[in-house]
């Protein structure tokens, strides 16, 4: 029994060793490996040449027989290779063996039929094919960058022989179609990510500038957290753009050994570490935002004395897991390859676990906040739209807490729709939080209007009380003998200040509404257009609440 490899037939034992040897030769280029194919009296072997600057080094002069039945020999050949590379090579050898069995089991072709004979071409198995036609096979998984949804083909000439490449004089199959589709899809994802990142940057950078430009904003604790949160998105977007165009695009368009990934330079590794750090930092700052808001509501708006613990979590937390991850990558030769882009199996959870814990914690925070809101609204029967506002608050807090990451936590294999959805969710989150908490924020609008009025010498809009006599925003001060004397500056500025977290959620509706039944006397103070009413009020055993009178 024999099996055909390219233009000749070989005995089965020889066919197995020969095809497995050429699987290694085709998968690892001569510039990268020290092994060379040689045909000796003992048969085909892989022989190590002189020492040199090879990616895959073997003892000079050593000889290896590529026989999968010899496990010790396979182990020696795979020693310099990564686990993934060894798996691809052995898979190619196993596929060649299956092709040999298929050639033996298929019925013999008729002699009157003009056709090209069944064969193994080095990567794929082709059956008997009619003369003048083309044979197609699914792209093998061990071809680099190949998509299993594409097909490779081999042309059978009208004279019943396989197509021969004019430059090499050998039978040739076209596997370039296997990578064209994936390269095209990858470039689509790169430009999609670029567009989403540019949109986010165009909103995040002005938002941070606005927060920093107005002292009344930047001294607030929640705004300081917003600035850090927005900055993490800015850093992540910039690093993502650099990574896509310096590394990913180069890998798609450059020859294998000339790409930055294959050269495995220190700069490429450093950029990869920054990429993993900035991605993790956004999760940690999401947790800080959720923890801060949850603490405010659960502790009845007790303002934290310092944000140092939040800075430590948001800045230092991601570095801990990222540095440990990088040390493992650098210290294990098997992982210190291809610019560290290869998956390192269980060690990937060093990055995934803290990120997932941040998301799960924010899910708990959001649920508890929603429960508190609904509980408080039930105690106010005069609030017919309370539940609608609670639902609105939930949707407003979703991008802040990162809950939208839920649909893409699990990553299915080789699915374009998942990659598109992941990129849109990941790279537009910054745009949404900047819109909600800065661009569309009423307090920010007030400061911008006041700034314009000072520069131009005239108000941008007439005061609201001059435009309408049927509605207005008022602050109601309730004095009771048992009320706690809140500090005006910290409480009003950090908690309400016309646009607290609750206000962001409820569109200028606070948790508590005016209740004349409370043990106290209510008096209304109209809100001035420049918010100067705060400076003239004395806080004597009372607190401020906001409502709409119509």
From TrEMBL:
Residue stretches spanning the membrane: 188-213, 225-246, 283-301, 308-328, 350-373, 393-410, 416-440
Subcellular location: Cell membrane
Presence of keyword Metal-binding: no
GO molecular function: G protein-coupled peptide receptor activity
Top-level taxonomic group: Eukaryota
One Pfam entry name: HRM
SUPFAM superfamilies with a match to the protein in the record: Family A G protein-coupled receptor-like, Hormone receptor domain
Gene Ontology, cellular component aspect: plasma membrane
Region described as Disordered: 513-550
Coiled coil, from the record: none
Domain (G-protein coupled receptors family 2 profile): residue spans on this chain: 98-178, 189-441
Composition bias, Polar residues: 526-536
Primary localisation category: membrane
Name of the molecule in the record: Calcitonin receptor
């Amino acid at each position: 029994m024999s099996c055909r490899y390219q233009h000749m037939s070989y005995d089965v034992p020889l066919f197995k060793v020969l095809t497995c040897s050429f699987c290694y030769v085709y998968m690892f280029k001569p510039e990268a490996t020290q092994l060379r194919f040689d045909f000796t009296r003992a048969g085909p072997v892989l022989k190590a040449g002189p020492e040199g600057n090879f990616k895959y080094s073997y003892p000079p002069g050593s000889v290896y027989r590529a026989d999968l039945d010899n496990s010790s020999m396979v182990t020696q050949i795979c020693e310099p290779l990564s686990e993934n590379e060894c798996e691809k090579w052995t898979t190619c050898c196993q596929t060649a063996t299956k092709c040999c069995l298929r050639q033996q089991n298929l019925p013999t072709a008729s002699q009157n039929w003009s056709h090209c004979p069944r064969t193994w071409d080095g990567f794929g198995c082709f059956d008997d094919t009619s003369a003048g036609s083309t044979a197609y096979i699914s792209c093998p998984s061990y071809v680099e960058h190949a998509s299993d949804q594409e097909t490779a083909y081999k042309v059978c000439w009208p004279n019943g022989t396989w197509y021969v490449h004019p430059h090499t004089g050998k039978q040739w199959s076209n596997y370039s179609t296997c990578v064209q589709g994936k390269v095209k899809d990858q470039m689509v994802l790169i430009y999609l990510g670029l567009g989403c990142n540019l949109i986010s940057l165009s909103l995040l950078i002005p938002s941070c500038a606005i927060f920093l430009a107005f002292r009344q904003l930047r001294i607030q604790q929640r705004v300081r957290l917003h600035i850090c949160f927005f900055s993490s998105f800015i850093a992540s977007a910039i690093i993502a753009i650099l990574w896509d165009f310096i590394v990913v695009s180069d890998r798609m368009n450059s020859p294998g050994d000339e790409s930055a990934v294959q050269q495995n330079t220190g700069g490429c590794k450093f950029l990869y570490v920054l990429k993993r750090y900035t991605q993790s930092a956004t999760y940690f700052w999401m947790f800080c935002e959720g923890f801060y808001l949850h603490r405010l509501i659960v502790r009845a708006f007790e303002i934290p004395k310092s944000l140092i613990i939040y800075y430590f979590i948001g800045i230092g937390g991601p570095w801990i897991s990222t540095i440990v991850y990088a040390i493992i990558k650098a210290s294990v030769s098997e992982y210190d390859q291809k610019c560290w882009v290869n998956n390192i199996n269980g060690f990937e959870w060093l990055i995934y676990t803290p990120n997932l814990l941040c998301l799960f914690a924010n899910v708990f925070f959001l649920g508890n906040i929603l429960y508190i809101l609904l509980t408080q609204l039930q105690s106010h029967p005069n609030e017919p739209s309370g539940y609608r506002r609670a639902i609105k608050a939930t949707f407003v807090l979703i991008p802040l807490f990162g809950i939208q990451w839920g649909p893409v936590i699990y990553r299915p294999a080789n699915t374009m729709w998942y990659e598109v959805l992941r990129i849109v969710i990941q790279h537009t989150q910054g745009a949404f939080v900047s819109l909600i908490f800065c661009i569309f924020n009423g307090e920010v609008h007030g400061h911008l209007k006041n700034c314009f009025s000072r520069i131009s010498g005239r108000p941008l809009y007439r005061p609201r009380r001059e435009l309408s006599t049927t509605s207005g925003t008022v602050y109601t001060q309730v004095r009771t003998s048992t009320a706690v004397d809140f500090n005006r500056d910290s409480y009003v500025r950090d908690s309400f200040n016309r646009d607290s977290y609750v206000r962001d959620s409820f569109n200028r509706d606070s948790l508590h509404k005016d209740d004349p039944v409370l043990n106290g006397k209510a008096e209304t103070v109209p809100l001035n257009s420049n918010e100067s009413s705060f400076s003239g009020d004395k806080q004597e055993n009372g607190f401020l609440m906001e409502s709409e009178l119509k």
